[in-house]
Write a structure and sequence with these properties.
The protein has about 80 residues and is mostly helical. The protein contains three helices and no strands.
């Protein structure tokens, strides 16, 4: 994740209009609820893209033959932990 992404997201959130009016029910105005859902959707999309990138990198490693059998990997981890 780019180092400035978090700062950019925070700055963007400050610039987005949000009409938060007080109401007798104590529930925020619907515009704010929609904005929160939009940001949640954006964050979920970013997480999905990050996972897809990891899968693509893993697939490239497999295609190049740069992988290890699971049993061999766990045997190596057990050996390293025992040392």
């Amino acid at each position: 994740m780019p180092p400035n992404l978090l700062r950019q997201r925070e700055n963007s959130a400050e610039l987005m209009p949000c009409s938060r009016h007080s109401s007798g029910t104590g529930v925020p105005a619907s515009a704010c609820l929609r904005m929160a859902m939009i940001w949640l959707s954006v964050e979920q999309t970013q997480q999905t893209l990050a996972l897809l990138k990891l899968l693509a990198l893993g697939q490239k490693d497999i295609e190049r033959g740069e992988f290890m059998d699971a049993d061999d990997f766990f045997a190596q981890m057990d050996k390293e932990l025992a040392e």
